[in-house]
Amino acid sequence: MTPKTTPKVTADWSLSDRALNLAAGSSGVGIFVTRFALVVVLVWIGSLKAFPYEAEGIVPFVANSPLGRFFYTAPATEYRHHMNKEGEYVPANHAWHEQNGTYAFAYALGVIIIAFGVMVGLHPWLPKIAALGSFLVILMSFSTLSFLLTTPECWVPSLGGGEHGVPYLAGPGRLVLKDIIMMGAAITTMANSAKVSVRGNHVIPKLFHPQPVQPPLSVLRYLDAYKPE
Questions:
Q1: Is the pLDDT of residue 215 over 80?
Q2: Pairwise CA distance, residues 43 & 147, whole Å
Q3: What is the mean pLDDT of residues 87-96?
Q4: 96 HSE (CA, 13 A, CB side)
Q5: C-alpha distances in angstroms, 2 versus 8, 116, 218, 219, 222?
Q6: Taking the mean position of all CA atoms in its chain, how far away is CA 223?
Q7: Is-cis flag, bond preceding 167, omega within 30?
Q8: What would the pLDDT profile of 56-77 be if each residue is shown by its tens digit?
Q9: Helices 179-199 and 27-48: crossing angle, nearest 10°?
Q10: DSSP letter, residue 51
Q11: HSE on the CB side for 142, CA within 13 Å?
């Protein structure tokens, strides 16, 4: 049996095959969008730390954290009597937060988060700095995820309903859980920046570089080419 010439499977690929081939070559786009998203989120969220409502919103996380409670002056449980709704202004509560160091800590944290975002965005010019920035974001995500273990507000309270405690995440808990996505994004950008740095290539990678990927049906077409005459 003499094998026939391998057919050009790209000529008769189905629409789904072509879509899969295009998707297989979109990793460059994925990395670019992931890095862009990280920069936008970090700079935006970091900038919001300069506003009182955002500074007050992180108090439960910081006050209950063994690593963060030392940044505030008031006891860990006292904040519950001085929380404002978003957009609400209560002069007495505002004064308490000023004495507690709420705003000063948030300002400093915001500057740090913005710095992380800028570092990640320096990838085209300083990939080593970008890789370090992504690594710091990974550490920050670990720290944020630890709030699930230390912050009671992360879980639905027992108020008479049947669903409360673990695994029923409240609003703050659902927000914290999303940091797993940020951690995965930072790992991806760190690996990419480190690879570019090691190779000494400081050029922005191609956004689209389709790879010749064999779709599942091509295996059947290939075997069909070896049928005996």
A1: no
A2: 22
A3: 96
A4: 16
A5: 18, 62, 20, 18, 14
A6: 44
A7: yes
A8: 999 999 999 999 999 999 998 8
A9: 120
A10: S
A11: 8
- The token pair at 212 is 């010749």
Alpha-carbon distances, residue 214 vs 22, 223, 226 (angstroms): 12, 13, 17
Token pair listed for 25: 């070559």
Q: What is the DSSP letter of 155?
A: B
What token pair was written down for 150?
């230390």
Characterize 93-115 residue by residue with b for buried, 16 or more Cβ atoms within 10 angstroms of its Cβ, and e for exposed. Answer: beebbeebbbbebbeebbeebbe
**CA 41/CA 143 separation, integer angstroms:** 17
pLDDT tens-digit series, residues 105-130: 999 999 999 999 999 999 999 999 99
State the DSSP string of 157-215.
Answer: --SSSS--STT-B-HHHHHHHTHHHHHHHHHHHHHHHHHHHHHT--SPPPS-----PPP
Q: Give the number of C-alpha atoms closer than 13 A to the C-alpha of residue 27, restricted to the C-beta side.
A: 9
Q: What's this model's pTM, rounded to 2 decimal places?
A: 0.82
Output the six-digit token pair for 24.
């297989």
- For residues 129 and 53, is the Cβ–Cβ distance under 8 A? no
**Structure tokens, 206:** 């191609």
For position 202, what pLDDT does the model report? 52
Separation CA 39–CA 51 (nearest Å): 20
Tokens describing residue 222: 């290939």
Q: At which residue do the structure tokens 């935006």 appear?
A: 44
3-state secondary structure of 8: coil
